[in-house]
Design goal:
heterodimer, A: 382 residues, mainly alpha, ABC transporter involved in vitamin B12 uptake, BtuC, 2 domains, two-stranded antiparallel ribbon, 70% helix, B: 249 residues, alpha/beta, Rossmann fold, 4-stranded antiparallel sheet, 10 helices, 10 strands, 24% strand, globular
């Protein structure tokens, strides 16, 4: 019964966000198509946040370069969609994606070829970022680079990728990026309401799997060793563990999650561009995790959705104010809620707040002791 | 070489010209219990650093069972059977007591094994036995960070026992413990010797006497003398080094 009570809010939450919209048709339950699409984007960003939580929250390595993997996933799906779609908006006179005409390219660059295949493209969404993450990660971790140097190197790598994609008009349309909204997928136009609803459903079906993957990685002794790396890496070495493969694996998983995130985000926002690799975007991803609560798995999902929803609301009301609000939010959370919203909630912060407003009984010691009747009667009789 | 398990042969370690160890030779027989004492800065911790691979000797060779281990990584040396407890009790504070122990007790230390294999009942029983023995069983589900200093020392030692290396190196195992805990630690260490080779570094002379093991005295990175505690204490050089401190206990 106790277990059931604890489960009720979760069941409601899952029902509200996962099952209803998955069953929902357009404009149902007050969820307009516009909001639905926005929420689809927020949830797709939760994947990259989960990855950052693995590498930062659990393993203690702050990566500022997750935008690389995010964009690679986005480009993978966009390239496939541009190749297979044949319509006036996306296809040029020579049968290639239209943007190639602008730069006089009439031969498809070689690395586009594999993206004709749907299955290869789907695999590339997470395999390409995994390979890049594996290579970068192996080189960094083998040389025992950590702490702030790791953050700097990941950010520098991000800038390399950004400038490369930005400068290659003839290969990937440079700074304009690849537009997917006019392409076709499963016989639907990617920008249409039906397709967007489909993407929303796919996102929400995949998210629990990503969550369970992270749960699987963090719950056993593998997860314990990640925390061991974060808290005292030399101690782990002296116990006979080589931390390098652990870190490489986690970085690869974080990269793969970022890739999936990027692909889902791209199809729902209609474009992938080097802007996804901007420094600020990758830092924002870190902020979502910090706000939601790092070192937990619910935290990053919560953070990605809440911060981005807030961004929409603030931007709709006061278009210029968002950056200030975001900065203030970050400072607020770091100073007052070091464990993020979720950590604050689970550690009794909500109770304490109610108590501060006189809505709940104030507790002098631990709520567990103070509110437990048997403990109280014991101390009264003593 | 067959009688010794660990040998240091003319080992010197210099940090930018400062010699922490100078031409130190040292050997251990399997199953031996050895105490190492010496004033601050004698090179005791550097001595452990050299054996466990944290510091590379500038000169000389370290051999384990006749094979050189110079240049191997910390984790390789650890897997060859050398375990170490640090001066401060280093435990993973955000893991529970039980998980700290289970992690170090894991027989297979590669990431895929940790992901896919569940810990065998034998190892789990072993972990519980250790926790029972050191009195940490009631705290099995507590986060190690919420333990008292003494309990953390015990946990750190227990983690070594769980890891079960052939050579156990203990750097100040009783620092900050009560007298009762100290004598219990001495019993534990004595019970480990024989099956394991144990090296204890301590300042606490009472504790060293409790152990009743041969003592090596280090001073300025060199071996001053070796022998039983009473012999060593009678040595005028040792008295000089300690400025009479060894008479205090």
């Amino acid at each position: 019964m106790k277990l059931f009570k604890r489960l009720i809010p979760w069941i409601l939450l899952v029902f509200a966000f996962f099952i209803l919209p998955v069953m929902a048709d357009k404009d149902l339950f007050g969820f307009s198509q516009f909001r639905l699409n926005l929420f689809g984007r927020y949830f797709s960003l939760a994947f990259v946040a989960l990855g950052i939580d693995l590498i930062w929250g659990y393993t203690g390595l702050l990566s500022l370069g997750q935008g690389i993997f995010f964009s690679l996933g986005g480009y993978a799906i966009a390239m496939h969609l541009l190749l297979v779609t044949k319509n006036d908006f996306t296809t040029g006179a020579n049968g290639l994606p239209k943007f190639f005409e602008n730069y006089g390219v009439d031969q498809l660059p070689f690395f586009w070829e594999p993206f004709w295949s749907f299955l290869v493209s789907i695999a590339a969404i997470f395999i390409v970022p995994s390979i890049v993450a594996g290579l970068v990660g192996y080189l960094i971790f083998r040389n025992r680079i950590k702490g702030v140097y790791f953050s700097i190197i990941t950010q520098a790598s991000l800038m390399v990728f950004y400038h490369f994609f930005n400068g290659q008009q003839k290969l990937v349309n440079g700074t304009n990026g690849l537009k997917t909204s006019t392409t076709e997928i499963f016989g639907l136009q990617a920008g249409s309401d039906d397709a967007q609803l489909l993407f929303y459903r796919i996102t929400l079906i995949l998210l629990p799997f990503a969550f369970l993957l992270c749960k699987y990685l963090t719950s056993g002794r593998f997860g314990d060793s990640l925390i061991g790396i974060r808290d005292d890496e030399p101690r782990l070495r002296f116990s006979g563990f080589n931390p390098t493969p652990f870190k490489v694996i986690v970085f690869i998983v974080a990269g793969a999650l970022a890739g999936v995130s990027g692909a889902l985000y791209t199809v729902q926002s209609g474009i992938v561009s080097p802007q996804f690799m901007s420094i600020s975007m990758s830092i924002e991803m870190v902020i979502w995790v910090a706000v939601g609560g790092r070192g937990t798995l619910v935290g990053p999902i919560l953070g990605a959705v809440v911060v981005n929803y807030l961004r929409s609301l603030v931007s709709e009301a006061l278009p210029e104010a968002w950056l200030f609000v975001q900065g203030a939010l970050f400072v607020f959370v770091v100073v007052l809620m070091p464990d993020g919203i979720y950590g604050w909630f689970t550690k009794g912060g909500f109770r304490a707040m109610l108590a501060a407003f006189g809505l709940a009984k104030k507790t002098a010691t631990y709520p567990k002791l103070d509110l437990d009747e048997s403990a109280q009667s014991e101390s009264a009789s003593a | 070489m067959s009688q010794t398990i660990l040998d240091l042969d003319d080992v010197s370690v210099s940090f930018d010209g400062f010699y922490a160890l100078t031409d130190l030779s040292f050997s251990l027989r399997p199953g031996e219990l050895r105490s190492i004492i010496g004033p601050n800065g004698a090179g005791k911790t550097t001595f452990l650093d050299v054996i466990t691979g944290k510091v590379r000797p500038t000169k000389g060779d370290v051999t384990l069972r006749g094979k050189s281990i110079v240049g191997l990584s910390e984790q390789k040396i650890s897997r060859l059977g050398v375990g170490r407890k640090f001066q401060t009790p280093r435990v993973w504070e955000n893991l529970t007591v039980q998980r700290n122990l289970e992690l170090t007790a894991s027989p297979n230390k590669n990431p895929f094994a940790l992901l896919t294999e569940t810990l065998s009942d034998v190892v789990k029983d072993e972990v519980f036995k250790i926790m029972e023995y050191v009195g940490l069983a009631p705290y099995a589900k507590w986060q190690a960070g919420s333990l008292s200093h003494g309990q953390k020392q015990w946990l750190a030692i227990s983690m070594l026992v769980a890891q079960s290396p052939d050579i156990i190196l203990l750097d100040e195992p009783v620092a900050g413990l009560t007298d009762e805990e100290t004598s219990k630690t001495a019993d534990l260490i004595k019970s480990l010797a024989g099956e394991h080779t144990v090296v204890v570094i301590e300042h606490d002379m009472e504790f060293i006497r409790d152990l009743g093991a041969p003592v090596t005295v280090l001073h300025q990175g060199q071996k001053l003398t070796e022998g039983m505690l009473e012999e060593v204490k009678a040595d005028p050089r040792v008295i000089e080094v300690y400025l009479g401190e060894s008479d205090d206990d």
